[in-house]
Amino acid sequence: MKRRIPLRKRLLVRLLFVSALIAVCSVAATAWLAVTTTTSALKEEQGQDLAADNSILAQLSGYAATHSDWSGVRRTVRDLAARTGRRIALTTPDRTLVADSAPRGTPLPPRPAATVDPLRTDTYTETGAQLSGIDPRAVGPYRLTGKERADLDALAAKRSQCYKRFGLQTTVVRIPSGRPVLTGTDGADPTGYGATECEDGQLNTPTSTERRALDTLTELARPCLKRAGLDQPGPLFLALDPSGKDPFDAGGYLALKYARTSRGPTAREAQSCVLAARRTQLEPYVAPVAELFLGIGDQNPSHFDMSPANKAKVVSAAGLVLAVTVAVTAAVAIRLVRPLRALTEAAQAPPERHVRVPVTTRDETGILAEAFNDLTERRERIEAQRKAMVSDIAHELRSPLTNIRGWLEVVRDGVVDPDPALLDSLHEEALVLQRIIDDLQDLAAADAGTLRLHPEPLRAGDLLDQVAAAHRVAAGAAGVALRTEADPAAWLDADPVRMRQALGNLVSNALRHTPADGTVTLAARRDGSDVVLTVADTGCGIAAEELPHVFERFWRAEKSRSRRTGGSGLGLPIVRHMVAAHGGTAEAASEPGAGAVFTLRLPAGQMPGEEP
Hints:
Helix content is 47%, strand content 14%. By secondary structure, it is an alpha+beta fold. Helix 2 runs antiparallel to helix 3, helix 9 packs antiparallel against helix 10 and helix 13 runs antiparallel to helix 15.
């Protein structure tokens, strides 16, 4: 149970209190020094570097155009502030701070320098200017895939070689979406020079990515065009415009087919519809609108007039604060270290001593001491269990080995003849010994987490039939009826070998404890997302006080039974580990005189043909 610590006794609260005390002393000393030694106030830097401000706006607009939110902008803001020497802050329109290069708590300038909105301001087309329109870097769903870029690059290179044969020198310019565009040496479109043989119509054909985005833009624009009476059949099409001056430009190359050929009010209405649709389409891909605040940086440090008297005051105040800080910290440290030193000494004590530590506080160190004492107690119990287990294993192995050795010695001395009955007895003792070793090996693998499983789809009814068939002879010899009941919908995704081993252990255990004319029933049913397997017998049952121990190693309800008739005491622990390795649980229920029921609950598997 987790122990609740009073707030005033929590170690964190104490450390915070000490830190706050030191901070108050430091702030008070700093404020006093500032009042007594400063001869002039800082003057705000006059004038602003317009080019640097425009560069900051352009870079932040580019970030907003290529990111869906501002979550990673802090590093960009810090880098820009360090490079330009300006204080840069971004806020939402309601003045919620997004990022700030100044220390926390620094007041914002009275007015924002600009609004960062890539869907309404273009800071990319012309350096140092702010144009009305969508920033070409906001490409959103029009961004080409790597394969599409590679294919278009190959087409552009082919067309450039074709132009070169006609004496036209061209340059490949890549627009923000990743599409290559050919321009002449003077920046003009080379298609105007008459080299029609080079126009194969492939380079300007929309890719699948562009076509999907274009179809979406068409659907977004149609309601507006319909209200304006401009709705016409046909999708938007690609029209390259490297200059970026096309009034119907959409990400650098998209336009309405009939809007481009329109003039006057019709063209303006179509432009408005396309622009609104593009903003709606790109909105999920760009960062929200933000206000940009610019202020002075920290490149012009303040200068203080430090007279000898003021220097002495600084040294004295600093020495006093340092002395108080050291004294308070030392007192707190000694109090905190004392119980930790006791824990260290206890941890370094010899393991066989199982040393406890006194619990003297009610804070985190006190809880740590209690946890250490609990751990020591658990270690002591585990050590006792280990010794008992070693003793049990030695006892289990001694009995069959003693029998084998004794009979071999009398045969060697000629007291008895090695007849078939004696050899069968020795063989049976060897099998008992082998069974104990195999069980111990399985338990060791389960404890180490190396128990290998090979799961496969398995019908629970088939599993029960296989187990019943394997024990049918033993059941007949004991005069016990062995029955199976299975739900056809019960399927498992399990290792059939391990599950047969687990169920076989339960059935063997049930047959040993069920008298003649009794019944052992194996059943399987579907229970929601689980499959429940049960092995029920009509034997003598298990006492209530012994039920919690049935899955413990080397435990047996009847202490007087021999290992040959009562088992090694490892079968049920193996069952528990096998089921746990499959992600299930094993339980036992019983009433004395009414038999026992062992229940295995495992995750259900998928039936053939069943929807996942």
